[in-house]
Design a protein that fits this description.
Layout: H1 2-12, H2 16-19, H3 32-65, H4 81-109, E1 117-124, E2 127-132, E3 137-141, H5 147-150, E4 168-171, E5 176-182, E6 187-191, E7 196-200, E8 206-210, E9 216-222, E10 234-240, H6 242-266, H7 273-287, H8 289-292, H9 310-313, H10 316-325, H11 341-353, H12 365-372, H13 385-392, H14 406-416, H15 422-436, H16 438-441, H17 459-462, H18 465-474, H19 490-502, H20 514-521
Helix pairs in contact: 3-4, 7-11, 11-12, 15-19, 19-20
Length: about 525
């Protein structure tokens, strides 16, 4: 208590520049806004301290000099107009003096216009997803603290619970606009060094911005109680020089191309059960153990057990569907966009054979691709899914279709270009819309006036189909509308466009198929 009192007294008589380095005080941060917030904090603190000194000074003076032992006689008066005016005007003037700098700072904090870079931040239990507009870069950022440290089996590291596998990378000296939303519950993206703290609400978009002055690594965390693993949702931001950031963008684009090529090549590979189990355990620990527990037992009443579960023991196709597309109304997320086909195949294989489940099933990347493309699965309980993979895409088949391999050339077409009925398109389109579009345009299609246009009755959704396809495929430069050509399959794109053109009373009657999407994209 004595140390705290000493620090507070020292803070009162310390210049603002030196006060920023005191351990109990707010830090000044590394942005213009954070410096304004710090200056505002110090201004208000000094005003409050001055008021306290005056009030307590008068009280102490009165107690000492007007005590009964000195023969003081209390004045007897009431309803003094002068006193009433004084104790009304003085606080009013003080509040005005405090409100002027506070209002200036708040207005500056809420001005994300003319940004050089826009990043969409999506919170989910319990990870962050970052999407760079105009660069087509998108990835998830997960806690990287080893499970052994969390369970107390190892000594905690320097940045315990404040380290991630992939940090958000930003440049210095550029205005960065953040669009924040959530896939499930309310989260809050908070980095103290930037003076940015904004709630991420499901179905809504909040805006914030920053311009960082110094390169470095800055840490934060979710500042909203978002569930049982709220404390395991850190934020790490790596700030690079402008030249290094531009080089990083080029590297990420190259890595994305390499990853896409690797994912395509993986479709023709057949991994052994041991390889799938090893990789599947790693994926499960990183992405599933937070809810279902490392031993698969889940949390009764909250997260179901995977030991002997009907999903695990049932048809492989149903298991894949839940992992790929999630389950509406529950905390089960869709992992189709979070994990590669190989990772999903491995984790499904692991879940079906770990903890005594022992179904004997193995799932390959080709099976995941087939299930994600909307084609019917041929795998059942007790059937080795690897056999199906070998039958549809044998290792001897060339990766690129050719005239000598008509089966290999025709198979992808059968997987992703089958015509669907209106009901099938609408059902699938609603899933895609809620997963990728509702955060901006709202689940009701009403958008956010001034930020995101309404699709309900909108000119794009009720106009020519070609224009609708073009904007969904290629985005719209200068706006937050990103290109989905590389993010969704042709079947998903066809479904969501059909849904948008016929939902909320639009009722154009138009149906779009995967072949139309492919034709438009060429």
């Amino acid at each position: 208590m004595k140390q705290v009192l000493c620090c507070l007294l020292a803070l009162l008589f310390t210049p603002t520049i030196l006060a920023a380095d005191m351990p109990l005080n707010m830090t000044s941060g590394v942005t213009e806004i954070s410096n304004k917030v710090f200056s505002l904090h110090m201004t208000i603190l000094y005003i409050c301290c001055a008021i306290g000194l005056v009030v307590f000074g008068v009280m102490i003076y009165a107690i000492i000099n007007h005590r009964r032992s000195k023969g003081a006689v209390a004045a007897n008066f009431h309803e003094s107009t002068k006193v009433e005016i004084a104790w009304t005007l003085v606080p009013f003037v003080i509040l005005i003096l405090m409100a002027i700098p506070a209002t200036k700072t708040l207005i500056a904090m809420e001005d994300p216009s003319n940004a050089d870079l826009t990043i969409k931040i999506t919170g989910s239990q319990w990870k962050w997803h970052y999407s760079y507009f105009d660069q087509d870069i998108s990835y998830y950022s997960l806690l990287a603290t080893p499970r052994e440290q969390i369970e107390g089996k190892e000594v905690k590291g320097e940045h315990y619970l404040l380290e991630v596998d992939k940090p958000l990378v930003l440049p210095v000296n550029r205005k960065i606009r953040f669009l924040m939303t959530s896939e499930d519950v309310i989260h809050s993206w908070w980095v103290p060094a930037f003076a940015v703290k904004k709630d991420a609400n499901p179905g809504f978009i909040n805006e914030a911005w920053t311009r960082i002055d110094k390169p470095g690594i800055y840490r934060g965390q979710c500042a909203e109680l978002c569930g049982k693993d709220h404390g395991f949702m850190p934020i790490v931001v790596q700030v690079l020089s402008e030249a290094d950031f531009d080089n990083w963008i080029v590297e990420q684009e190259a890595q994305a191309s390499a990853a896409a090529a690797e994912a395509q090549a993986a479709l023709s590979k057949t991994l052994s059960k041991e390889e799938l189990m090893t990789q599947g355990e790693q994926v499960y620990t990183a992405h599933c153990a937070a809810c279902h527990q490392p031993n698969g037992a889940g949390l009764p009443g909250v997260f179901p057990s995977l030991i002997g579960s009907p999903i695990i023991k049932g048809p492989v196709a149903d298991h894949l569907d839940v992992v790929l597309h999630g389950r509406s109304g529950t905390a089960m997320q869709a992992f189709a966009q979070q994990l590669t086909a190989t990772q999903i195949a491995a984790v499904v294989t692991f879940e079906r054979n770990a903890w005594g489940n022992d179904t004997g099933d193995t799932v390959q990347a080709a099976d995941v691709n087939q299930a994600n493309s909307g084609a019917s699965s041929n795998t059942d309980t007790g059937t080795d899914a690897g056999t199906v993979a070998e039958a549809t895409q044998p290792n001897s088949a060339p990766a690129t279709p050719s005239a000598e391999s008509p089966t290999a050339a025709e198979e992808p077409k059968a997987l992703v270009l089958d015509d669907l009925t209106m009901d099938e398109l609408m059902a699938k389109g609603e899933q895609v819309y809620l997963g990728h579009c509702a955060a901006c345009h709202q689940a009701t299609g009403m958008g956010l006036p001034g930020a995101f246009p309404a699709i309900k009755g909108g000119a794009i959704a009720t106009g020519p189909v070609e224009s609708h396809l073009d904007i969904v495929l290629h985005g719209k430069p200068g706006t937050a509308m990103q290109a989905f050509a590389s993010l969704l399959t042709p079947q998903e794109l066809a479904s969501v466009i059909t849904y948008e053109r016929n939902a909320w009373g639009n009722n154009t009657g138009d149906m779009v198929q995967a072949t139309d999407v492919n034709q438009q994209g060429q």
